[in-house]
Write a structure and sequence with these properties.
By secondary structure, the chain is α/β, with parallel strands linked by helices. The radius of gyration is 17 Å and the shape is globular. This is Gamma-glutamyl-gamma-aminobutyrate hydrolase.
Length: 240
C-alpha cells in the first residue's frame, strides 16, 4: 500500500556517550524528549552517525533527509572559534563531534534544508559562520544551568511565527553563550541578563531558527515549545 503522507525524515546528529547502562558499552545517543518532540510533530527522527567528513561527504549524506535538527551536547573546542586558551569549565569536548557538527551546519545552510538548532546546536551554527563563544558565563550565580526563565522574542522573526509569542518560558542548561555573532546572523531572542537566546539568518532561502534553550524539556506541556518542532517538520514536509 502506498503511503500518501509519509513522515518527513529529520536528521539528528547523534551524541557520543562514554557509557550507557542499557547497552553496556559506549554509545551514540539522542535525548528521548527531543526525539519524541519530533515524532509528535509528525516527523520521523533519525539519528545520524558523526563520521569524519573527510571520508564521508556530509552533503551527500544529508541529501536523503527533509530537515535537520542540531541538538544540545558538550562544549565546542575553544580553538574552533579562535581562542588561545581553554577555560577550566569547558567539558565533553570531542574533536570528531565538532568537525561533524560544524560541517552539518554549513552544508545544511548551504542547501537550504530546514534546520532547527538547539543549545549546542545554536553555538555550532554561530561558530560555523565565524562567530565566537564566551567560554564560561561566570559561575553558578550567572550560568543558565537547570534554570527556567523568561525569554523575550523579537517580532517578525521565524521564532515568533513558530511560537506565536513575544515572551516564552525557556528551560536552559548551558554555561556558555554567544560572544561575537556569526556573519549574517541576527539575534531573535534574549534573556533578561542580555544572553543571546535565539539566532536567525534574514534572507536565508531555507527555514532556519536556533535557540539557546532546550525546548524539548517542556514541549510535552508547553505548546509554544512544541511549536518549534512542529514548524521544523512542517517546513520539511512542504519541501523546505
Amino acid at each position: 500500500m502506498t503511503r500518501t503522507h509519509p513522515r518527513p525524515l529529520i536528521a539528528i546528529p547523534a551524541r557520543f556517550a562514554a557509557t550507557t547502562s542499557a547497552l553496556r558499552y559506549a554509545a551514540e545517543v539522542n535525548a528521548r524528549a527531543l526525539v519524541e518532540a519530533v515524532w509528535r510533530a509528525g516527523g520521523e527522527p533519525v539519528s545520524v552517525h558523526p563520521a569524519d567528513p573527510a571520508g564521508a561527504d556530509v552533503a551527500e549524506r544529508l541529501a536523503r533527509f527533509d530537515g535537520v535538527l542540531l541538538p544540545g551536547g558538550g562544549d565546542l573546542a575553544p580553538h574552533r572559534y579562535g581562542a588561545a586558551d581553554t577555560h577550566d569549565t569547558v567539558y565533553d569536548v570531542d574533536d570528531l563531534q565538532d568537525v561533524f557538527d560544524l560541517e552539518v551546519a554549513r552544508r545544511t545552510l548551504d542547501t537550504g534544508l530546514p534546520l532547527l538548532a538547539v543549545c549546542r546546536g545554536l553555538q555550532v551554527v554561530n561558530v560555523a559562520l565565524g562567530g565566537s563563544l564566551e567560554q564560561d558565563m561566570g559561575g553558578i550565580d550567572r550560568e543558565h544551568r537547570h534554570v527556567v526563565h523568561p525569554v523575550a522574542i523579537q517580532r517578525g522573526t521565524l521564532l515568533e511565527q513558530a511560537t506565536e509569542a513575544e515572551k516564552t518560558e525557556a528551560s536552559c542548561y548551558h554555561h556558555q553563550r554567544v560572544d561575537r555573532i556569526g556573519v549574517g546572523l541576527t539575534v531573535t531572542a534574549r534573556a533578561a541578563d542580555g544572553t543571546v537566546e535565539g539566532l536567525e539568518l534574514p534572507g536565508h532561502p531555507g527555514w532556519f531558527t536556533a535557540v539557546q534553550w532546550h525546548p524539548e524539556d517542556t514541549a510535552h506541556q508547553d505548546p509554544a515549545q512544541q511549536a518549534l518542532f512542529d514548524a521544523l517538520v512542517r517546513a520539511a514536509h512542504d519541501g523546505h
